[in-house]
Amino acid sequence: MRLRSAPPARFDSVGKACDTALVVSASPELPLRDLPDAHGTVATNDRRDAADGPSDVELLERAEEANRALHEAIGARVVGQRDVVELMLVALLSRGHALLVGVPGLAKTLLVASLAEALDLGFGRVQFTPDLLPADITGTDVLHEEEGAEGSVRRRIRFLPGPIFHNLILADEINRTPPKTQAALLQAMQERRVTVGTTTHALPDPFQVFATRNPIEQEGTYPLPEAQLDRFLLEIHIEYPSEAEEREIARKTTSEHVGVVPRVLKADEVRALQALVPRIPVTQAAVDLAVSLGRATRPRSGDRSTPREVREYVRFGAGPRGSQALVLAAKARAALRGQAAADIDDVRAVVTPVLRHRLVLSYRAEAEGVRDVDVLARVLEAVT
């Protein structure tokens, strides 16, 4: 494995040169155990024993292969939506939760179900309705009777787990259930465990929620609270297919043959790739850009890079969790592309899905038809 340098990139708002990007090329001369850090330093070049599992470089190659294979596997059933699939894989490798937003009929549910089918992970679906109770998703304590010797009956309390006790959870139409039930997801999404009664139960590893939301229906729906929206790593908007894709959808979905999604990754492989992402190096310039973008969304931050649109149309901007999410998503995107380090291009690519749901727009923005993507486009332009 040999390291070589690429020309440094710059962005104006930070006012200093970016770190030199790291590019890794295969070579038998340097059998690296792990990836280099953001300064090009390799922790050790000792050979890893076969019993220790694959090296980080091998995992990086596997992540790139899995990215291609998962796109093909999901494409066997879903036509188009490649950008959406990539963002879903970013959320998967980041161990983050994702909110899929789109009008009915754009395959939101099918996308999540197809991803689960391509992975060797437990899959649970919860159809959110106005009468859904927290215990319907988390589980509850039930009285269990056991017949003992000589016909005696012993009663004990046993926990009956709900559908949330799976690796991948499809929370379908999450905005159709009252806030009481929505709040039941908060502890699960943040701490990956649930408390029922006086007992706390750990959720499986990995545990990730892919929720869907219909943006056009207001009757019988409950807006998600900001505290829960902030738990989602990404908000992924699904657009209408192109004309050619819609022809293919009409032909493919009305034929006798139904696409079969092959199994791509085993559970252990998914966990190994997820553990790799935090170890991916990130340039200092990428971290600076992520922080600058997050701060520029706050109307009262006093930051000179805050554009006029933010001060006029945003009530509350992204908190520190937004900057963290930008860096983590950038690392996952770099891993999926087989890159040895995350840079500012990775951060720029995930700005909209990471930050759009963390902005609270003002009534003026709604009255004037200003959208979150319009504000973020101006923020990105002002900062970079």
Key structural traits:
about 375 residues; five-stranded parallel sheet; two-stranded antiparallel ribbon; 15 helices; about 40% helix; disordered N terminus
Description of the structure:
The protein has 384 residues and is an alpha/beta fold. The chain has 15 helices and 13 strands. The protein has a five-stranded parallel β-sheet with strand order 4-7-10-3-11. β8 and β9 (199-202) form a beta hairpin. The protein is globular, with a radius of gyration of 23 Å. It starts with a strand and ends with a helix.
- With strands numbered from the N-terminus, the spatial order across the biggest sheet is 4-7-10-3-11
The topology string of helices and strands comes to EEHHEHEHEEEHEEEHEHHHHEHHHEHH
Largest sheet: 5 strands, parallel
Radius of gyration: 23 Å
Give a brief description.
The protein has 384 residues and is α/β, with parallel strands linked by helices. The chain has helices at residues 56-75, 82-93, 108-117, 134-138, 179-191, 226-229, 243-252, 267-276, 284-296, 308-313, 320-336, 344-349, 351-355, 363-367, 372-383, and strands spanning 2-5, 22-25, 97-101, 123-127, 139-147, 153-161, 168-172, 193-196, 199-202, 208-213, 232-237, 314-316, 360-361.
Topology (elements, then pairings):
Layout: E1 2-5, E2 22-25, H1 56-75, H2 82-93, E3 97-101, H3 108-117, E4 123-127, H4 134-138, E5 139-147, E6 153-161, E7 168-172, H5 179-191, E8 193-196, E9 199-202, E10 208-213, H6 226-229, E11 232-237, H7 243-252, H8 267-276, H9 284-296, H10 308-313, E12 314-316, H11 320-336, H12 344-349, H13 351-355, E13 360-361, H14 363-367, H15 372-383
Parallel strand pairs: 3-10, 3-11, 4-7, 7-10
Antiparallel strand pairs: 1-2, 5-6, 8-9, 12-13
Helix pairs in contact: 1-2, 2-11, 9-11
